[in-house]
């Protein structure tokens, strides 16, 4: 059975180059992509790649209910991935992260969104790449607002592995974020 795992290194939360400076592209790059995204078939590792899984793109005003600047980070525990969802403006084939909570304790629903008390949907939790339309290539650092970010080459490789294993659009695969598991297996 296919299963995703995120091995999160707790150093990933220490993403500010200078803790005294405000959040921004020039400051939130430290300890970038220390985590790993894996896909297993039972106990066999089919895919493993570095990923940014901590929300380091936390600039500006926070949404209601957010308590931590990086609170949109998917919390340790279970999640579901709905595969090959509509990409909208994203590069490549992407996947939705659903049925889980963020560090602020807010639910990420079956649509990979959060619904505010006023009924507005916000955010979109995805697995996507760090492709920059402006640069015409991957950015130097992965910028996550709660998503799991891979390089373009790694996302393409993941998609190839999924397709070779019969995964089709909207198929769902269970997953788990495990913190500090990283050090024992890498």
Describe the protein in words.
The protein is mostly beta strands. 9% of the residues lie in helices and 34% in strands. It contains two helices and 14 strands. It has helices at 152-164, 182-185, and strands at residues 2-8, 35-41, 44-51, 77-85, 94-98, 100-101, 107-108, 114-115, 121-122, 126-129, 131-132, 137-138, 148-150, 172-179. An eight-stranded mixed β-sheet has the order 3-2-1-14-4-5-10-13, with helices on one face. Strands 6-7 form a two-stranded antiparallel sheet. It has a two-stranded antiparallel sheet with strand order 8-9. A hairpin with a 4-residue loop joins strand 11 and strand 12. The chain starts with a strand and ends with a helix.
Give me some keywords for this one.
about 10% helix, about 35% strand, about 190 residues, two-stranded antiparallel sheet, mainly beta, eight-stranded mixed sheet
């Amino acid at each position: 059975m296919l299963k995703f795992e995120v091995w999160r290194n707790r150093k990933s939360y220490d993403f500010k180059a200078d803790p005294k400076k405000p959040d921004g592209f020039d400051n939130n790059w430290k300890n970038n992509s220390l985590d790993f995204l894996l896909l297993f078939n039972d106990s066999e590792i089919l895919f493993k790649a570095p990923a940014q899984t901590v929300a380091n793109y936390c600039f500006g005003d926070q949404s209601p209910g957010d308590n931590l600047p990086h609170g949109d980070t998917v919390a340790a525990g279970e999640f579901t991935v709905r595969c090959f969802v509509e990409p909208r403006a994203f590069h490549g084939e992407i996947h939705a992260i659903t049925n889980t909570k963020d560090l602020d304790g807010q639910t990420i629903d079956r649509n990979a969104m959060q619904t505010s008390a006023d009924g507005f949907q916000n955010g979109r939790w995805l697995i996507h790449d760090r492709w920059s339309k402006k640069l015409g290539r991957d950015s130097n650092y992965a910028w996550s607002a709660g998503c799991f970010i891979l390089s373009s080459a790694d996302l393409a490789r993941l998609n190839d592995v999924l397709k070779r294993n019969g995964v089709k659009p909207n198929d769902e695969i269970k997953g788990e974020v495990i913190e500090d598991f990283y050090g024992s297996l890498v």
